[in-house]
Structure formats: structure tokens, C-alpha cells
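Q: What would this chain look like folded?
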Amino acid sequence: MPANVPDLLLAAFPPELCGLDAAPPPGWRAACVGVGAVTAAAATARLLAASAPRRVLFVGTCGAYDGRLAPGDLLAGAEAIATSLDEVEGRAYRPAAEPVRWAAGWALPARFAPHAVAVPPAITRTAAGAAALARLAAAEHLELSGVFAACAAAGVPAAAALGVANRVGPEAHAEWCARHEGVSRALVQALRDERVL
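A: My prediction, written as C-alpha cells:
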């Protein structure tokens, strides 16, 4: 791999890149992969094929399932788990051969505490749903399994830095709307402070 090939910085949509899509840090190429795991997987695979980066960093916001995380906390996605509330509560199951877990391929600084991240097909809206999914992970995110799966298939190490914008439950959307831009700015600044970006 040539030394001048940039690493790939990804987010779901532009506000989570805080302007880095227009002016990426030196040594990085930035792009958005869209909302949802399937969309993110397809876009990530296309970007990997086009640019062959050495590694990938995904940045974004997430929701906290329980008291392990609070709004404003920063974390590293230790693993992405594709799941659903129906599956966790026993109303659905997957074929045994279907992969559902993808581990991060490189580590972020200690400031970003590692946590498992659940990736359901849609946003969880109830406190009971959050409590059920908390048995698998500390945080909820909609794209990470797609990004990590595409990177694993391509043999490219991936990491994720996420900022908690809301608690998962009935008030999550309003809380996310009020906080996501500030949390994204804090996340990008922390990555700069730690010399990741």
C-alpha cells in the first residue's frame, strides 16, 4: 500500500463531520455513507473499492440504553452487533450461519471508553425496549454494523468514535435534535486533541 493513500473518515451525514467533509484533516479522505446499516454497508464498500484506504474511522452520534453512558459521553465502538428488539425478546431468530457481530479493527485512545454498540433496523422508542437491548450493548446506533461488516469483508481495519446525544426511549428524538450538533463538535475536537485526526 503506498504511504500517501489517505485513511477514510466516515459519518452517516454531513453534520456529524462538522465541516471535515469539505476540508478533511491531512492524511484523511472524508465521506458520508447515509442513514441505516444496509445503506451504510453499500456506500462503505463502494468507497473502500474506490480508495483502498489503510484504515477507516467512523464518527457519529448514538443513544445510551442505560446508566453506563450519559449524554455528552464519548466512546469507542468495541463491536457492532446487528440485532432487533424482536430478536432480543424471542419473537424472531436468525439462521445460525448469519454473522451478527463485528469487532473494531484498531483502538482509539483511552479517552474513548470501549463499549459494544447495538445496531437495530430502526430507532428504539420505548424504555422497555432500551432495557431489553441493554442486555447486549451500552449504546444504539443505526449504521455501525454496516460499516464494520463492509470493512471486515474488505480486510480494512475500522474503528468508531461516537458521542452520546440522547438516552434511548420516548424522548430520544427531541433530545437528539437538541444535542447532536454540539456532541458532534465535541467528538471531532476530542479526536483532534488526541491527534487521531
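The chain has a mean pLDDT of 96.
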